[in-house]
Amino acid sequence: MDDLARFGRSHRTGVAVAAAILVVLIVVIMLILTGDDRAASGSTPDASVPTPAASSPLPSSSGLDPLRSPSSLPTPSPSKAPTPTAGSALAICCVVIDWITETTARITWTASDHATGQVEYGTSPAYGSTTTLEPSYQWATHIQLISGLLPGTQYHVRAHSVDRAGNEAYGDDQTFSTLAASPPPPGACFGSCLGGDTLANTTVGPSGQRVGYSFRATGSQISTIRVYWQGGSGYGGGDGGTFEASIRNDASGQPGRTVAGAATFPGGTAAGRLIMFSTPVSVTKGTLYWALFRNTSPSPSRNYTSANATLQRPTLVPRQPRQTDREYIVGYFDSSGSWTERAGYTAIIDIGYADDSHSGQGYMEFWVHPGQHAEIGGSHRVRENLSNPISRAVRTLAARIERVSGSGPLTIALYSDATLIADGTVSASVVARSPVGTDGGLTWAIVELPAPVTLPAGPATLVLTAPSGTTYSTFGIRKGGLFGYTAGATYFAYGSGQYSTDGSSSWNDFNDLANGSDVQFYLR
Looking at residue 150, what is its pLDDT? Predict the structure, then answer.
């Protein structure tokens, strides 16, 4: 009887299970017949599409004209996915335009497969400009920064991706407007605002040296720093070493013992070595700090790399036009713990904050070899092409030059488009003579106008000339944009330097880089 009872219960259970299965099969058949493929294919998103951990950097207001805080900016809603083109399986969706400032915007989108990433942009649907191509096929989600935009201007943008099979996809044309520029504070330095003659290195490790860079915090949480690290003969040895970067307090003009946060990174040559902190480092805005670099290799005398900085000879007071003499200092502790500040050095560093703002000094190369100086005199001229983002009052015109020969004055002239706004001369007697091609000897030639003049927003030019029979010389300083340094926050984003040898009939770019170098100049 017990066995029969068990059989009866088991039989009833089996019937119930079979009935349930039959119901499910009927539902599936009905879904297929009605064209709904959810039961067959599933709707789980592609888990292999990565989300980038960090966004592209944006400029901050450190030392230059201020930018509005991104925290107050609107974030547009993502766009719907476009219909793929015929014969292509690739599509772009979820385009977001955010972190819009006076001169920058960030574009984020997702492709339907891992693909390259680039943005077309311009003031019309014809675009005309592109961001730097991300050429790998590692990502489906892309983040691209557009910089150097004009304030208060509408722009068109379109995302573009190509997968490994060569299939292309374009996002829809979208528009956004940059914010109107804020008035510059009185005395703000407009220009490259940096003097330098050459690169100079400090080894990190061989003699127990620890190298420090000072900076003033412009945000509250540091997420990254970027530095110019140089290896190879004369700069490094062995495998380049391994390093620790720590953020420290200022202790009477040198790195203190309090460590706010630290990160490790490899040695070897990297003009834009990016160091990422696993947890953002909390700092107090407006306070002076140090980034201290320590070689952690077991054999630092054999495995080491150099920290590169800019060098100006002679050392001036103030050291640079746009910063206090306590900012961007370079120094080192020797093996005994004694601190030495390197005279004339200015740190090359980009400090990135958790809110995507940046500050630092991002000029990194110089045009100083014999035969590469740009001469000023007679038909030889130098200029900085400007795109002035906002009307400003100007009282001072300055350029850093050296005198090669002759006694005629240097003329510095400021034009708004083709209209002369102001000019003035600098006597040859106040400009030091220096052999062409040597490091050092350049002087800030300064014109103080009798009264401020208004430089309107829009195209402008600063031109340096001298009479025939007199020769001055200068050279360009290279921007670090190709190596990840942030436009506007670490180098001048509103111009580029050129020289002419035929009386302005034709112009050549410094360093043979269009928009890649500036004249050493400033306006106040």
Answer: 82
CATH H-level superfamily of 70-177: Immunoglobulins (2.60.40.10)
**Structure-block tokens of residue 53:** 């951990």
As a whole number of angstroms, the distance between CA 480 and CA 247 comes to: 23
Q: What is the mean pLDDT of residues 409-432?
A: 96
20-24-25 Cα angle (round to 5): 115
How many alpha carbons lie under 13 Å from residue 515 in its C-beta half-sphere? 9
Residue range 56-91, pLDDT digits in tens: 333 333 333 333 333 333 333 333 444 444 456 899
Side chain identity, residue 228: Y
How deeply is 35 buried, as exposed, middle or buried, from its count of CB atoms within 10 A (0-12, 13-18, 19+)? exposed
% pLDDT > 90, the chain: 65
Contacts of 159 (CB under 8 A, 6+ apart): 92, 95, 107, 109, 117, 118, 119, 142, 170, 171
Lowest mean pLDDT among 158-167, 236-245, 247-256, 384-393: 384-393
Q: Is the pLDDT of residue 494 over 60?
A: yes
Contact between 147 and 487 (Cβ < 8 Å)? yes
| pTM (whole model) above 0.90 | no
Domain span(s) for CATH 2.60.120 in the chain: 198-361, 374-523
Could you say which DSSP state residue 451 is in? E
- The residue type found at 466 is A
In terms of Cβ atoms closer than 10 Å to its own Cβ (0-12, 13-18, 19+), residue 14 is exposed
Tokens at 89, concatenated: 């399986």
| pLDDT given for residue 303 in this prediction | 97
d(CA 26, CA 22): 6
387 forms beta bridges with 459
What's the pLDDT score for residue 368? 67
Please give the DSSP secondary-structure letter assigned to residue 4: H
Spell out the residues 6+ positions from residue 513 whose beta carbon is closer than 8 angstroms to its own: 478
At residue 23, the pLDDT reads 43
What architecture does CATH give domain 374-523? Answer: Sandwich (2.60)
Residue 304 bridge partners (DSSP):
237
Write out the CATH class of domain 198-361: mainly beta
367 in Cβ contact with 444 (< 8 Å): no
CB 212 within 8 A of CB 227: no
All CATH 2.60.40.10 domain ranges of the chain, comma separated, are 70-177
d(CA 367, CA 346): 17
Single out the residue of 495, 312, 321, 521 nearest to residue 412, CA to CA: 521
Q: Model confidence over 12-31: pLDDT tens digits?
A: 444 444 444 444 444 444 43
Q: Return the higher-pLDDT residue of 86 and 403.
A: 403
